[in-house]
């Protein structure tokens, strides 16, 4: 492989952004070669510059960004070309797919037309020929009923199907290099596996080189020939995949490799009293009720779920998007109308209205997935954390609130001075700590954790998992932990419910489920989540 | 879709009824009446006038009379413009206002849209600043300032166009009023198009087009369609306002449209004229909002009406 001339070659690539705070150097002197037909993975955490490196190659930097250095495609310099000249390469010799399949297609145009466009622009195909080729491509990427799909709009397709369409577009002109920027991150685990399988299959058939930008080491281990590890805009390590995984040279690489959440949770004693006892919980949504009473249909988001959660215990709820796992969490906290029965300690929550629930809210807390959207940008961290105290303990003095805020921040390993700053000054992991502090300051008994680690880098996830376990031990908390990420669930839960289409399809202790999953759906989830581990072991 | 249109038109009836009812009683609450003059009329004369126009009847009965006449398409006689019915006034004035308004609207879409697109592609460059500057000028300077300036420059100094008058709709006479009407609309449309385009150009799906090496015309086509959505929703109510005439422009240029009727009707307590104007404007607003929704569905496949 090394003897061949590289198809893509970067030399001393720098990417800078002009910002109001001066110039930001996002990529620092990156040099790398991609051989024809090889799969190169670029790994690193968010902010490592891995995406911006390839955005610069494609001439897709934001308008305040610019790149210097050299980017050669088969020996021809493309950095600094005008968009028109660059278009000889983009979409023909270089293809790219993105992290956001939901928004990467134009919602206003038909799938067939969107796939045809690069064919007509580069291959000078007629409309009819392009459409015929678009049909071939849709078949190639495994879209069911491709003939019909030509005339579909993006919103009629699922995320996985949209990513397949993106792949079809990128491959339309048989590129020599396909750049895949986190192509599976936004997808459900089983869909992720399918997309990765598709990419591997297409690579076998067409032999293009793939540059895989990812933070998921499982994907790297399984698919990449070589790995480039980036940190702070620089390449810190590079080598053959097996080598990097078995003998990482850099501390940062070792940290990335070790970042999978580890450890298990001690189950609570058997005589531990129940905190939540839910029977036959049902949540039904009315869909589309017309203004003049047109037909309405029902969606059973949660369909008869039982749940028993003991003091100090954690129940993990896993499933893919739309399985009803988040809705179940909300139903148990009485945040969404539901039928069935939910008992909290010795009280029946179902008959309680908004006012009846209020005194209990203090003990029943919720932490959300999105650490960016769930903190008000206009309040200081101190105000955010103590807002609940104002409601639930109005007698607490200002100085006492401040003291408790400082204490809560220390508990989640943040500097107490953080309480005078605003959320935007913090990273995703720090914001999630703030959200946890906001729940913990009220000394809750039950915390519903709705995908609290999904938006975070692996190494940060590990820290949050450690923090959650420590807090649980310290305060004898009960967690309802909702996630699609099985490695995190394993590290936190005593018992697991697997949900699909609103129903629990399998339940058991964490050991049982992981050692011997019964349902095909559970097995599919497992296979998808741990394909990395199986591939290497 | 056809069913949807029929349903929307049917649901417009209660809306119109509500508007008619509220405005009927609201204008009656205003102190004074249509026949109040500086020097009061003799009691006998006043009494006869009120009898002729049925103003001596109880209010609810007058309301009933008005409604039943309205059902027959009769908007009643004007109290102020004697010898004219409201229908006659609108038949004469509405086409004039609509002609001016429609041309101004066309200018707003074509000129404003083009300027907005150019500015978006040249964001933060001199061309962009020029467009934004022009748009800010057009929005902030009121028509009663623009109109006299146009009259002085193009009417008096250059003598290109007449200063005012309708002259049976000669094109020369319409140029300055149309420009005055169009300027703020061109400005708003330019600004909205620019903002919407900038947003679409930054979107992920335009990034996909660029990543696939598609030429500029394709990118413009995609971006325009996406950027059209907010502009279209602005144009609906704007069209209703433009087509029903402008008090300021029609007064300054001496144009016999219907724009001044609303103010004059209200000042003179010309009850039927106020009602007529309200109904005409309401119909325009309802129709154009329906049109906007239909155009929306044409542009955006995610919008569905059943």
Characterization of this structure:
The complex is a heterodimer of chains A (537) and B (306). With 537 residues, chain A is α/β, with parallel strands linked by helices. Helices cover 37% and strands 26% of the residues of chain A. Chain A has helices at residues 50-58, 83-86, 111-123, 127-140, 146-149, 159-171, 189-206, 217-223, 241-246, 251-257, 325-332, 354-361, 381-392, 398-411, 428-440, 458-475, 486-492, 510-515, 520-529, 531-536, and strands spanning 8-19, 22-34, 39-43, 65-73, 76-77, 94-97, 177-181, 209-214, 226-231, 234-240, 274-287, 297-310, 314-318, 339-344, 347-348, 364-367, 446-450, 478-483, 495-500, 503-509. The longest helix of chain A is centred in the middle third of the chain and has 18 residues, at 189-206. Chain A starts with 7 loop residues before the first strand and ends with a helix. Chain B has a domain at 90-299: Orthogonal Bundle (MetI-like fold), CATH 1.10.3720.10. Chain B has helices at residues 2-29, 43-52, 59-71, 86-121, 126-140, 143-157, 171-201, 204-211, 216-243, 247-252, 261-267, 271-299. In chain B, helix 6 (143-157) crosses helix 7 (171-201), helix 7 (171-201) packs across helix 9 and helix 11 (261-267) runs antiparallel to helix 12 (271-299). The N and C termini of chain B lie close together (6 Å). The mean pLDDT of chain B is 91. The A-B interface holds A 58-60, 62-63, 83-84, 86-92, 95-96, 98, 100, 103-109, 117-118, 121-122, 153, 155, 166, 169-170, 172, 290-292, 294 and B 7, 11, 123, 202-216, 218, 222, 225-226, 299-302, 306.
